[in-house]
Design a protein that fits this description.
CATH architecture of the domain at 413-569: 2-Layer Sandwich
Distance between the termini: 31 Å
Largest sheet: 6 strands, mixed
Strand content: 5-15%
Number of helices: 22
CATH topology of the domain at 413-569: Alpha-Beta Plaits
Order of helices and strands: HHHHHHHHHHHHHHHHHEHEHHEEHEHE
Helix content: over 70%
Shape: globular
CATH class of the domain at 413-569: Alpha Beta
Length: about 575
């Protein structure tokens, strides 16, 4: 009987892995089928392993990304991280977090996460994981319009892979071709797309082959070869319709509209442009709707319908302005991130140079120590200089250590440092059977503050929030920014009742914050989830997970409230 149960468990685990693989494949080709399959898996999440649950919530975030629900996607990624996934899944989760940051227009955070992920990737020993991660990174760079970075990373991925893994090779080839297209290297891009279409078709990756066909069509359109562009676009459209890939279909329709206009086939141009223009305005279709309205304006102008032509052009101009503003914000964030990175490297190099100088002078001092009394005065001077250098290096080291431990905006502990300190406190508490509580907090509807009043006001709210809480803390409480608008307080020697009373006081203090000094009038509230250690807990992770489930319930209870963990909350959907 045991063998039968074990075998059925293995079969079920393998079946769930297969189901998640199907969802992941559908997510890039047939979103509606992916969502239906995802809901089916979600109904059986209590039968999933920790790794499978992490994958499940990562895919739920991808679903929200496709639906442009970026705040919900961010929350799903938070849940995915609570299941302690392996390194490769963690990297994927953080790359999707870059995408949600882009959707939330927090480009500085997006580039900061990119830099973090690049350092993570460099530490991987397995080249196949490294290459697959580079390919995911390339998709993010494409969204951020960082085409020079795309060229660099795609070449790096191709050099690492050397054709060993066909799937990775196909994605790297495609992104390399797209980067050359976006940097207007049209002849090279056309050849690269052709090579990619042929290679990936043979290797059994038809979707990438179709994307390569579309790439050749865009090159033909950009170089005014409209007959060739029409043929290639119709071929790509037929294949995309098999996959029901709506985003790509919309782009092909928009290019067909413009192509038929330049071929003087105005009815066909109007037909395909209207197919796109009938779609609602969303972040992922601004460019294609702009192209469609430009086509309709040109067609109306050719027919002498100048009022209609003007109306379509007004819409196209408004969309162009929106796209241009997005590009400027992305470019500014990109340049700021690059500047921050260069500045950090400069400071680190300066510290290393100081250290090398210190060691060189120390060596000289030791060699000349016994050479002559005539140099005693000089040696005293060198000693003083060395002391000053040591003090300077020590101060710089402390400064860098403090920067590494603290959150740059609020000044409280960052996630890594806060959890390390709290883990030490937790171990001490468990050793003497003392209570230990965890309080997770999330500022309610924080995205609305950023969207309505700007990120400067959002930063003011975060700093004001932390300053209010710091006054309430005990000396051994560990106050930590977990990321974004989520915070934690790790509370040694505090039982659940005491922690709950503290959380209610904290919630009331936050609700009473006067926001007039920010220059705007709005309210700040916070949702809180609390858990307390029991004798079976071996680390902080279970406490954080339980507090996160309680926080999840607090949000669904209407926000601005405190919820303590109960056993019935084991599953977020319960």
């Amino acid at each position: 009987m045991l063998l039968i149960l074990c075998s059925s468990g293995i079969v079920l685990a393998n079946q769930m892995d297969d189901e998640l693989d199907i969802v992941e494949n559908f997510m890039h080709t047939n979103t509606q089928s992916a969502i239906a399959k995802l809901n089916s898996v979600l109904d059986h999440q209590d039968q999933l392993s920790m790794l499978q649950k992490s994958r499940l919530y990562m895919l739920i975030s991808v679903k929200h990304i496709y639906l442009a629900q970026y705040a919900e996607a961010d929350e799903a990624l938070d849940i995915a991280l609570t299941f302690n996934p392996p390194e490769d899944i963690i990297t994927r989760i953080y790359l999707y977090r870059v995408t949600t940051s882009i959707g939330l227009k927090d480009y500085k955070r997006a580039f900061t996460l990119l830099e973090t992920n690049l350092s993570r990737i460099d530490n991987y020993q397995d080249n196949s994981i490294k290459i697959a991660t580079y390919n995911r990174l390339l998709n993010v760079y494409l969204e951020l319009e960082a085409y020079d970075e795309m060229l660099r990373i795609s070449q790096l991925a191709l050099n690492l892979n050397q054709g060993e893994n066909p799937k990775n090779q196909c994605y790297s080839m495609l992104y390399y071709a797209v980067a050359n297209l976006r940097t207007k290297q049209f002849d090279l891009a056309s050849n690269l797309f052709s090579d990619t279409e042929q290679y990936c078709g043979v290797q059994g990756f038809p979707l990438i082959a179709v994307m390569s066909t579309k790439g050749q069509a865009i090159v033909a359109y950009e170089t005014s070869l409209y007959d060739k562009a029409e043929s290639l676009l119709l071929s790509a459209l037929a294949d995309y319709q098999k996959f029901k890939f709506e985003v790509e279909i919309n782009e092909v329709h928009s290019y067909l509209g413009m192509t038929y206009f330049y071929l003087n086939r105005f009815e066909d141009a109007e037909y395909y442009a209207n197919k796109v223009n009938d779609k609602p305005i969303a972040p992922n279709n601004l460019l294609v709707k702009k192209r469609a309205n430009e086509t309709l304006s040109l067609v109306a102008g050719k027919r002498g319908q100048f009022d209609k032509a003007y109306q379509y052009q007004v819409v196209a101009n408004a969309l162009s302005l929106q796209i241009l503003n997005e590009q400027k914000v992305k470019e500014n964030a990109y340049q700021m991130a690059r500047f921050d990175s260069v500045e950090k490297n400069r400071e680190n190099n300066s510290l290393m140079q100081d250290h090398e100088l210190l060691m060189q002078q120390k060596d000289i001092f030791m060699k000349d120590k016994s050479s002559s009394i005539m140099f005693s005065t000089l040696l005293v001077g060198v000693s003083v200089g060395l002391l000053l250098l040591l003090i300077s290096a020590w101060l710089q080291r402390n400064q860098f250590m403090k920067q590494a431990q603290r959150d740059g905006l609020t000044g409280i502990y960052n996630r890594r440092t806060g959890q390390e300190l709290a883990e030490n406190e937790f171990i001490q508490s468990q050793a003497v059977a003392e209570p230990f509580s965890v309080l997770l907090m999330d500022l309610d509807l924080f995205k609305n503050i950023n969207d309505q009043f700007g990120h400067a006001t959002g930063d003011w709210a975060l700093k004001k929030f932390t300053s209010v809480i710091e006054v309430l803390l005990r000396p051994n409480d560990v106050f930590t920014r977990m990321g974004g608008e989520e915070f934690a307080i790790f509370m040694p020697k505090q039982d659940l009742k005491t922690a709950t009373n503290f959380a209610e006081r904290l919630r009331a203090e936050v609700e009473a914050i006067n926001t007039r000094f920010s220059g705007h009038d709005f309210s700040i509230t916070v949702s809180c989830g609390i858990s307390c250690a029991d004798k079976h807990d071996l680390s902080l992770d279970p406490l954080i997970h339980r507090a996160d489930l309680a926080l999840y319930r607090a949000k669904h209870n209407g926000r601005n409230c405190v919820v303590c963990y109960k056993e019935s909350m084991k599953h977020p959907q319960s």
